[in-house]
Amino acid sequence: MRQPGTRKIFILFALVSCLSCKVYQKTAIKLDKTEWIHGAADCKENSDPPIQVVQYNYNTWILRQNKCTNYEGPFMFLFLGHKKALLMDAGATKDEKQFPLRATVNNLISKWEEASNTKVALIVAHTHSHGDHTAGDIQFKDNPNTTVVGLGVDDVKSFFKIENWPFQNSKIDLGDRVLEIIPIPGHQKASIAVYDYETKILLSGDSFYPGRLYINDWQSFKLSTQRLVDFTSQHKISYILGNHIEMTKTPGKDYPIGTRFQPDEHILPLKVKDLLLLNEALKSLGDKPARKVYDDFIIYPN
Ligand SMILES: [Zn+2]
Ligand SMILES: [Zn+2]
Question: How far is the CA of 110 from the centre of ligand 1 (A)?
């Protein structure tokens, strides 16, 4: 039999969750309209900050490194839960004076801690081990309450508790916030994708972004792309976000390698239909790695 009070509590609970759901919807910004700092024709004249901080919603931030500090201009992602913070990637520059990643992240975390009346531990993990996403690790070496995940496949496997790499996914709970780790070797041996169940954002690292998709292991990359497609067919996806922008707004046209100025760059997010296009293209190329230009990305075997 239902207790008389239970129904009231349930209605109240539903109302509160619906309100927070509305707040969430209001505060999540539209990433296909977001303007990013994009370097400068003359970096000596550039007055943009070294790191652009964009708040996506109340507990998610996207950071972009200024191309004037490193031409790669990588993106970094900060997810906050009630127990842990997860920073995905650490940028392309070691020097804290040029690239104050630690101070930026610590500042965001302490504001969150204050607002949510909680303390969180920081995890610095990586979409893969390339230097343009790991150089800033060194800044977190002595940062309190912080774990920097190692860069090898074994480090990633053991931290995220993945036994059957790359066929098994794993989940990490930041405290009322679960993310799924999907191994996707091919661009690099330790590449992972990360899916956030709250925002439905899928991070695809350097494996899929509006730019040159450098492929180091063709067979692995093909299998990983298929697994990523399978994942997207079973999960709602809001945005697929990679680590760089190298395409211009003109379909099929990329900026030259090493440019520090991208005044007309492609938007950051890609869509599931773009991923399906990549997967079909890889299948049709079969066992023969070949460069192929599409409107929003370029297949670029090494
Ligand atoms: Zn890379
Ligand atoms: Zn990269």
Answer: 30
Domain map (residue ranges) of the chain? 31-301
Distances (CA, A) of 269 to 66, 75, 203, 273: 18, 12, 10, 12
- Is it the case that residue 21 has pLDDT exceeding 80? no
* CA 55 to ligand 1 center in whole angstroms: 24
Ligand nearest to the CA of 65: 2
Ligand minimally distant from the alpha carbon of residue 300: 1
Distance 192 CA to ligand 1 centre (A): 11
Phi, psi (degrees; rounded to nearest 5) at 300: -140, 75
Helix (H, G, I), strand (E, B) or coil at 57: strand
Q: Minimum-distance ligand to the CA of 186?
A: 1
Distance, CA 84 to ligand 2 centroid (Å)? 25
Answer for the pair 286, 301: CB distance below 8 angstroms, yes or no.
no
Measure the CA–CA gap between 235 and 223, rounded to whole angstroms: 19
| Omega before residue 166 within 30° of 0, cis | yes
All residues at 6 or more sequence positions from 229 whose CB lies less than 8 Å from its CB, including other chains: 275, 276, 279
Give pLDDT tens digits for 210-248: 999 999 999 999 999 999 999 999 999 999 999 999 999
Give the residue from 181, 177, 159 showing the smallest Cα distance to 60.
Answer: 177
pLDDT tens string 154-184:
999 999 999 999 999 999 999 999 999 999 9
- What is the pTM (predicted TM-score) of this model? 0.92
- The class (CATH top level) of 31-301 is alpha beta
Whether residue 15 is predicted with pLDDT greater than 80 in this model: the reply is no
